[in-house]
Amino acid sequence: MSIPGPLVLLVEDELAMRRFLRTALEAEGYGCVEATTAREGLAHAAGHNPALVLLDLGLPDADGLDVTRRLREWSQVPVIVLSARGHEGDKVAALDAGADDYLTKPFGTGELLARVRVALRHAARAKGEPEAAEFRNGMLRVDRLRRQVFVDDREVRLTPTEYTLLGVLCRHAGKVLTHRQLLKEVWGPGRVTQTHQLRVYMAQLRQKLERDPARPALLRTEPGVGYRMVDPGA
Amino acid sequence: MTRPGRPDPDALLARIAPAEASATPRGRLKVFVGASPGVGKTFTMLEHARQKRAEGIDVLVGIVETHGRADTARLLDGLEVLRRRALPHRGTVLEEFDLDAALARRPGLLLVDELAHTNAPGSRHARRWQDVEELLAAGIDVCSTLNVQHLESLNDVVARITGVTVRETVPDAVLDAADEVELVDVTPEVLEQRLREGKVYLPAQAERALERFFRRPNLVALRELALRRTAERVDVQLRGERAASGATGPWEAAERLLVAIGPDDDAARLVRAARRLAGSLRAPWTALYVEEPGHATLPAARRELAQDALRLAEELGGAAATVPGHDAADEIAAWAGQHNVTRVLVGGRRAGWLGGPWPQPMAQRLAARAPALDVLRVGGDAAPSPPPAHRTAPFRLRPWLVAAGTIAACTAGALPFRGTLAEIDAAMLYLLAVVLVALREGRGPSAFAAALAVAAFDLAFVQPYGTFSVDDVRFLFTFAMMFGIALALAGLATRVREQADAARQRERRTAALYAMSRDLAAARSRPELARAMLRHLHDLFGGGITLLLPDAEGRLDVVAERPVGGHEAKDLGVARWVFERGEPAGTGTDTLPQAGALYLPLATADRRLGVVGLRPEPADRFDDLAQRRLAGAMLDQVAIALERTALADEKRQVHLEYEAERLRSSLLGSLSHDLRTPLAAVEGAASALLTGGARVPEPRRRELAETIVGEAHRMTRLVTNLLDMVRLESGAIAPARQWHVLEEVVGAALGRVESALTGREVTVSLPPDLPLVPIDDVLIGQVLINLLENAARHTPEGTPIAICATAGAGEVEVTVADRGPGVPAAEREAIFEKFHRAAGGAGGTGLGLAICRGIVTAHGGRIRVEPRDGGGAAFRFTLPMVGTPPVTEPEPA
User: Fold this and answer.
1) How far apart are the first and last CA of chain A?
2) How far apart are CA B556 and CA B445, in angstroms?
3) The pairing of beta strand A7-11 with beta strand B773-775
4) Is residue B450 within 8 Å of residue B434, measured between CB atoms?
5) Helix or strand or coil: residue B853?
6) 3-state DSSP helix/strand/coil percent for chain B, to nearest 5?
7) Beta strand pairing call for A226-229 and A176-178
8) Which whole-number Å values give the CA distances from B262 to A120, B159, B295, in the listed order?
């Protein structure tokens, strides 16, 4: 490894997990800093200026949610939270508090690296690159200038709301978006509890864009959390 | 086969039983008995207490009246005295013995003077002896004092000797149950001396009466009574000792005593006499009242005399019984025969207490019917005192008007036909009218009607018309005959009516009891039971009813009431006391009579079940023994029904525990196998990698790593399932329902099991108009995942899987169908049980379908498996459409 890759901060109290994460990340050329407590994690985040933070939600000294909030007070570093299954509420709270993505334990190396890549790419884009005029993802093509949507080069007519919704999903392609985040961006802050409305529009979008809406290739559901546009780079 | 001289085991058990019955041993009661005030009972008690304290016993003076006597007060010096409780009463403050403080203090020996004392209003019990009972039950030893004239059974004897009626009486049972009785005796001479010296306390207002009381002959007689009563007790003790030592005595041939009472003021005296005789004979005894046909029409006051006497019998430790019958002597003889009665006590004043047609006294009639019985006639007072005035039934005018009206109508109706009717026809018509009145209005009015009939007949149908004079003197004879016949007919008709009334009343009681037991038997749960009970008790007794049952922690609380809100919160303490002690309290009893209702315990032989509060309408309804009996019988039914549900609950609980136990062992079996196997593989593979290092060739290394990943994955699934199951069963998972698009939930599930379904055709057919469904998407997603994984595991590779849904009435049904071997009919229910695995199952956890059922059930739906047309299995589950679907705003395209 001649050129050290981006630095990843691991905030995780379990030694076995840290070992696994470090091994997997270093094998891909990332640099690693480890922290076992929330306090240490915040200190390292300030001291090492990492490119990405992997944050366990079940830390001994503080709630992972608090760590996310504290981080977001001064840093836009992408944060991926790690949590056990069955704690969808915690994940949603962390995402709403500013985390970029989540991983459900147990997870494999492949899944971990894919999420890390997406998060880093989004962080790079957020640094000021303007949005490309055209978005492509598999069979889907969105012409942002003309506000036209094509599936397999056949134009699909969307309602304004559907188009806005699709636009938000495309802008964050590969990243999970919570119901709250989507509702806020598309319908405005006053309607964040009307999740059924969102579901109905997602179903309509799938009907129009997916070959088999019951087995979506583009618009994935994250049960209990939100939706994710499949990563075009994957 | 009991050998002679050996103690009868039953008798021995009977002696042990009271001691074992309660967890806390009962306290010991010592009573200092005296013949009259002034003999020195309190003094002796205090001396006894000092001696006990010298022996190191924790002595507490609960309440002692020194009445200003210096030598008595001196004995109190150095003894701990309990503070009295102040009870405000009508502007003044009464000081009373503080029962609760004494119970809380728990001394080794408590002194409570004056057993016969009546407590101030507002105390828990009406009488101090009841306080003492509660103290004894709480395991506290008590010393008390009692004058012999306060004993219930001697009450009338004392009254006759001294001319002073004592109102404060103590049931004989209290003294009989005392562990120790000490007679404090002084000669009348000494007592007179003390009186002269002013050493005997006399309440000022009662001085004159008490002067009469303290005359020499009275004192002698009272002393004799006290000595005899104490000797009687010694006798009872002796008998107890003999029974314990196994000696037999001449009294083994058991005596049984019956006292026959009538509805008169002699009844109470008879009952007391019976108690005294039974006491000296040591025989069980019963007071019997025969409800003769005329009972129903007796004045209420007379009926109550009989009821009071029966109640007195129960209070004095005897039994009470009421039987209906035509002839009292027949019934008494029959009852005596059935119950092995050896002696019968009867009153002597009247032949038949209803003034019946029998010429002989009851004693002779009984002797004629049952020659083997000893019949004892108890002499009566010379002149019966009239029953208390307030008890006479109110006079009702209406029956008399009806009588007069009937005769008048009869006259008016027959008058136009005077020319054609013979006198005899008119007379018959009047007789008919009298019978009609008798059938409807009873004795008095029918006699009145008979007299009116004769007069009207004379006026209207016997010449000369319009006057009472008669032409033909023979008519005078006719009038006499007519009046006699009318009276006799009226008597017969009245009796028929009374018997019918009595039968109807009994019938109603029986019917009510039957209806209630039928409803109670049909009730399957406590709420149903409570409803049935409230309805029936209300129908029968009116007024308010409250049912209080203990909750899981054993705390009594109101579970049902009628009318709602009728129960007064302050009464809860009364109800709890009743529940604790198993004795009635509240209105109409001597315990906590200020309560808003009568509280009766619901209990069976070995279980306290609850309390019923009754506010009868009218309030004095339960003064009637028959009503109390009926209420008692109904409450017994309720208690039995409650016990039945309690037993059923317990049975269910035991079954649950058994199931849980069975499950635990199968869980352990499953766990040890399913967790150890992958762990062994992981550990083995990892250590092989560790020790082998670089010497392990690359393909082997990869194999080992794959083993670790695969086995870990298997364990993850098992642990996840186990945790889900535990959380489902503990109720930790409550579905967070939201309105979902089913297609999306299916899609997410399919995404999760993608790898397991590789190479299979999966068709999803959901109707386009399928409504939003109210479900927890994560949980229902789990159901779909489990079903899909099962399908993948149990069907041949490459066979298709179909998912479809249909909207039905109020629910949506989802089906996951495969083309595998199907599920055998015998397994279709069992596969949803925990740890049930299909024969030759391919590595499932045995939990997947159990979790599915748990989740679907939590959603209010059902899950089942059916054979699929054309082969395979179809797992179907329903999702009920609870709530109102939200409106989604349409948008122009």
Assistant:
1) 24
2) 53
3) unpaired
4) yes
5) helix
6) 55, 15, 30
7) antiparallel
8) 106, 22, 10
User: Distance between terminal CA atoms of chain B?
Assistant: 102
From residue B78, alpha-carbon distances to A113, A172, B82, B112 in Å are: 90, 92, 13, 17
Cβ(B774)–Cβ(B813) under 8 Å?
Answer: no
Yes or no, beta carbons of A221 and B751 under 8 Å apart = yes
Please state whether B543 falls in left (phi above 0), alpha (psi between -120 and 50) or beta: left
Q: How many CB pairs under 8 A join A and B?
A: 73
At B740, is the pLDDT very low, low, confident or very high (cuts 50, 70, 90)? very high
Query: Can you tell me the ipTM of this complex?
Result: 0.88
Strand spans (E) along chain A: 7-11, 31-35, 52-56, 79-84, 101-105, 134-137, 140-143, 148-151, 154-156, 176-178, 219-222, 226-229
Angle between helices B625-692 and B474-522 (to 10 degrees): 10
Contact state of A196 with B745 under an 8 Å Cβ cutoff: no
Q: Can you say whether the dihedral through the CA atoms of B521, B526, B528, B530 is positive or negative?
A: positive
pLDDT tens readout for residues A157-201: 999 999 999 999 998 888 899 999 999 999 988 888 888 889 999
Which residue in A165, A215, A228 has the most chain B C-beta atoms within 10 A of its own C-beta, making it the best mutation to test that interface? Answer: A215
Amino acid residing at B673: H
Among B815, B798, B811, CA closest to B764: B815
Q: Write the pLDDT tens digit of every residue in B699-716.
A: 888 888 888 988 888 888
Q: B712 contacts in A (CB within 8 Å)? A: 106
B residues 732-791 closer than 8 Å to A (CB) = 738-741, 743-748, 750-751, 762, 764, 766, 772, 777-778, 781
B748, containing H or E segment? helix B742-752
Amino acid at the residue B427: A
Q: Which two tokens stand for residue B744?
A: 């999306």
